[in-house]
Amino acid sequence: MALFDTLRRDIARFNPPGWRASTRWMKRRLPTGLYTRSVLIVIIPMLLLQCVVAAVFMERHWRMVTERLSEGVARDIAAIIQVIQTYPQDGNYDDIVRIAEETLALNVSIEANGELPPPRPKPFFSLLDSILVEQISDRIRLPFWIDTVGESRLVEIRIKMDDRVLRVFARRNQTYASNTHIFIVWMVGTALALIGISVLFLRGQIRPILALADAAESFGKGHKISDFAPRGAEEIRRAGFAFIQMRERIERQMEQRTAMLNGVSHDLRTILTRFRLQLALAGEKPELHGMSQDVEDMQSMLEGYLAFAKSDAEEEDVGAVKLSELLERLRADFALHGKTMTYEVEGDDEVEVRPKAFSRLVNNLASNAERYADTLHVDARHSAKWLTLTFDDDGPGVPAEAREDVFKPFFRLDEARNLDASGTGLGLAIARDIARSHGGNVTLADSPRGGLRATVRIPA
User: CA 225 to CA 212: how far, in whole Å?
Assistant: First the structure.
């Protein structure tokens, strides 16, 4: 245990609260979709690689080549200066100009009694300026002036030699590596092409996963799935076939359950019909009233069991339901029984659900409140992703320890509040079953009105 405690303290030391907060912030900002994350996994390492390659290239290749070229130009200029200072020349320096142009590819002129221009503003970032200035300072060691700014293909260099000024015009590509952009263009172009190809392949690989997720979500909402076929990589196809087998098993189990309940209900209804007939033939006798009531209770229980077993599975079509119309009918029913119901709808009034099942879900929860409370307020919020219905009443409520038990089939709450007056204990079980068949859920909590709060949350 001491070893685990030490390890936990070490992990906590290397993960301070600020780091955890920044990690949570990044998780909230990062995209959640599989396709987007996969694209980022491909693009981010490639961009980092391109940045590293570009940085290394700029630092090593571009700078090194520029240094060599600037060093060559500075050396040529230094040689010209030494020739001028060592050997006498004619007044026009024609031989120097000719040799510089033919042999060194430099355009040279010498101005008698010339002066250097005032210094030009230094560019914010210029690799050529810094390297060329450094090379001229090291090799010539005379006052000089350079002009590398502008779109001109020439670089002008002026050297102050006693009473003369040597003007040298060199081609820009003689002084620094001017074709570096070609490498960058090829590098960026290749990266974009590879990213495009990777995105296309990723889309093809992720599309089967998205189709499987859509099929599973549709099946969870109770929609009919007919056009799903496993595709993609072997693991994705295996998951798709496993989903199809699971769906078939569930549908087969539901069909068998419904068929069994239909058969049982048919047999029991036949017996109950005979009981009714015998009671009718026996006439109106006080001692038979209890038996007649028992037959009616058995009929009600039988209908409740059958409805729970079916769980509205036979309704496959999804349609639009107007929340305001459904809640208005409930409000009128409350008013008919001398009770008060209010409602508020926020967002889109229409919702795509299975109409009969959804109506039964809302009716079950509203009728439960109507039976045990005097007032009910329903708050419906329809956002882009979720539909949330909140039922707040002022009834006796449900103890916190029993709020999950009341959703169990045939569970009866004997204290404070019986959730199913029919005695079968299926009202909330059917409500939650319908909500989950839509991909949502029903939960219970304390209401601000003093009673029970039932919250229905299903995907929009």
Answer: 11
- What are the structure tokens assigned to 123, written together? 């560019």
Q: So what's the pLDDT on residue 265?
A: 73
d(CA 364, CA 366): 6
Cα angle, residue 143 at apex, residues 142 and 145 outer, rounded to 5°: 125
Give the chain's end-to-end CA distance (angstroms, integer).
49
User: What is the distance between the alpha carbons of residues 381 and 132, in angstroms, rounded to a whole number?
Assistant: 70
Task: Identify the segments of the chain with pLDDT beneath 50.
Answer: 1, 3-4, 7, 11, 415-422
Q: Which residues are catalytic?
A: 266
**Nearest residue to 342 (alpha-carbon basis) of 436, 449, 216, 213:** 449
Nearest alpha carbon to residue 374 among 345, 406, 337, 343: 337
Strand order through the sheet with 441-446: 340-347, 375-382, 386-393, 452-459, 441-446
User: The pTM is what?
Assistant: 0.52
The DSSP bridge pattern shows strands 375-382 and 340-347 to be parallel
pLDDT of residue 254: 74
Name 107's bridge partners.
169
Antiparallel, parallel or unpaired: β 144-147 and 154-161: antiparallel
DSSP 3-state of 247 = helix
